[in-house]
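Long-time lurker. I teach an intro course on protein structure, and each term I like to show students one example going from raw sequence to a predicted 3D structure in token notation. This year I'd like something fresh instead of my usual example. Would anyone be willing to generate the tokens for the chain below so I can use it in lecture? Attribution to the forum is fine with me.
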Amino acid sequence: DWSSSSGAGNGLGTLYAFQKACLVAKEKYGADLAHELMEGKISAALYHTAGKGTRLAPLPASENNNKPGVKLPVCHQLADGSYEPITVLEAVVRQTGIYASSRTGRLSVFWGDQIFVPTAPFKYTPTHHVDIMCTLEEEPPTEKVWKDKGLEKYGVIAVSGGGKGDAAQVEKVDHPTAMRMLKNLGDIARVGPSLGSFSVSAKMLQALCDEFSSELAAKDGKLDTDPHFWMPLTLPQDEYISLMSQKGVDEEESSSHHVRMAKMKDAFLAASPELGLFGSVDVGSNACWWDYGLLKLYIANNLKLSEEGDDADLLRRFFGVTDRTMNSEISGVTVDGSASAFSCKAKSGSVGADAVIAAVEAEDIQIGEGAIVVNCAAKKIVAGKGAVLYNLVSESDDGIVAEDGDVIVSVTDAEGSSMLLRSKTSICGGKAWKQVLDGNEMSFEEVHKQNRDADVSNIEKKRKELYKKASSSFGL
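-- Reply from a regular --
Happy to contribute to a lecture. Here you go:
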């Protein structure tokens, strides 16, 4: 309900979402979320799930624009004992919960399409009103390290030496420029790419809500955390103006915003000196980081379920995978030793090397090498090499057939009618967003607009009914 169609940005969006959460907590449960947080009695978390999911298309369309509701090809057990594919957001919530005990009196903010498993200790005592997650390098930030690690491509967190651990943020700059911009930090001990996720003390959260109260009340403006909160709070004015000019922002606008944030910072630190302003939380330079925000990464990271290696082993451990075939009835199916099958039922067929299938029910399945099939029910399912089949239900004798590299999903409406949406693993949904691809009646953008007011929960119930009906029709 923000005034602008382009949204509030993740900065104002965080503050606005927290305020709305406080209202819901009060109305539904009689809980004063802001007070409990300020008293240090609770830890709260907020997950950013906004965005159209263009680069993950067409999968979010199949979830009626619920991008973090995209299912992964691995199942978890529900309270009633049944199994169903875990969603990206459910996996993120599971992972990030490890920080809760360290963050009483703080709001944590995470992104809803990334899972990371830290190699650095995750229990810690916060020393700053704002701390941001990053993968800090062990080596000092020399020009060679900066270049070798490609740090000019990222938003980078720099941490000062000494005991305070004060930090600052720069974005996509070379080593000499970064050192100049970060001169206020003094001796810089460590640097590393930012993960974007952060936490703020209840006092800082309140200060930001107060500072931007006019924008929040009017539901107007667009501000992001990195360029509009953290960088003006940690960089000198001239360097902030220089950095923002690279983004095409007018000098007068950058200068005015920096003055505003500096005034807020001075007043805040005078009133709340017990913690530093801005610090870091190192997740470890060898942390595992699985991003599901792009179709190619969704495919690559899900195929790790069938791969060998430390990263793949950790992924399986995270999802509770103890065997390549789990909770499945597929004794009549020939399954390659490198393939994975979770909560599937089939009477005959084969599953090729490195393929991953979950919540699949069919009389016969022919799954090609490296294919991914999630939540599909049909009399027969044929998936070519590297194909992706998602949320498909068919009661026809022909079943579901996909060629090599096909991506096929089903988009279901509130009445239970379904439309197939097709793509290829080689196609970037962001680049093809406005195109009507072969085999489709609509572009991804048009489907997104059609889904805009969809009741996601009710449609998911309808989808489960269709799945069960199809499965029952061929005796599974």
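Some talking points for your students: The CA atoms of residues 57 and 429 lie 5 Å apart. The first helix runs from residue 9 to 29.
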